[in-house]
């Protein structure tokens, strides 16, 4: 069974929905930042990011595939020559949605979807330091239960050994 | 098709509607301008979200 598309259905028919999304994608690449409803922004994000991924590959086949969605050749040229190189280092996550509250009139939740222009920060994965995790555990054992002191000290020795190994690796 | 047999009394109608209640909207203070704003949304006063300018402020 085919898996239904995530998110809201837009427009009155599949053709209308396709047209809405392709127009939104065109406007996004043209202006870099557009204001729309949350539902439309959420549907647009995966489409726009797929198109940018194709633009990063940059060959004629991918350009023709993008042209089936974004009909404007000028916008596609801008996407391939200006936008795609700025995302060369970024592994996905090219767009950002920010909620900006309700629209006056029909109280539709609105959002701003924009191309991310900030430089990519190197992701620093901080592993939990072994010292604070291991140090508090053996101390209460030694104070409260004297019988298991020997075992605890053995554990401590093991812990220190593993810590030393980790430090060596790091 | 099943239909109501009797007209519902005003008391019954009003007793039911007495349970219609509204709740206050959750608010947090904007980190940029300290004015109250809704969580996870750009501030309406200064137009920032996470100190990043998202929209033009409505001043």
Automatic annotation (TrEMBL), chain A:
Q: Where is this region: Disordered?
A: 124-170
As given in the record, the signal peptide range reads none
Q: Which gene does this sequence derive from?
A: rplQ
Q: Name one Pfam family in it.
A: Ribosomal_L17
Biological process (GO) annotations? translation
Any one annotated GO CC term: cytosolic large ribosomal subunit
What UniProt keywords are attached to this protein's entry?
Answer: Ribonucleoprotein, Ribosomal protein
The answer to whether the entry has keyword Ribosomal protein is yes
Q: Which GO terms describe its molecular function?
A: structural constituent of ribosome
Which residue ranges have biased composition labelled Basic and acidic residues?
140-152
Q: Which family does it belong to?
A: Belongs to the bacterial ribosomal protein bL17 family.
Q: Is this entry keyworded DNA-binding?
A: no
Q: Mind telling me which InterPro entries this protein's record contains? A: Ribosomal_bL17, Ribosomal_bL17_CS, Ribosomal_bL17_sf
Subunit info here reads:
Part of the 50S ribosomal subunit. Contacts protein L32.
Which branch of life, at top level? Bacteria
Protein's recorded name: Large ribosomal subunit protein bL17
Automatic annotation (TrEMBL), chain B:
- Where are the annotated segments for Disordered? 1-20
Q: Which GO terms describe its cellular component?
A: large ribosomal subunit
Q: Extract the InterPro entries matched here.
A: Ribosomal_bL32, Ribosomal_bL32_bact, Ribosomal_zn-bd
Q: Which domain of life is it from?
A: Bacteria
Q: Which example biological process does GO assign this protein?
A: translation
State the UniProt keywords alphabetically.
Ribonucleoprotein, Ribosomal protein
Name the residue ranges with Basic residues bias.
1-19
Q: Which GO terms describe its molecular function?
A: structural constituent of ribosome
Which family is it part of? Belongs to the bacterial ribosomal protein bL32 family.
What name is this protein filed under?
Large ribosomal subunit protein bL32
Q: Which organism is it from?
A: Herbidospora galbida
Lineage of the species this protein comes from: Bacteria, Bacillati, Actinomycetota, Actinomycetes, Streptosporangiales
- In the UniProt record, the gene name given for this protein reads rpmF
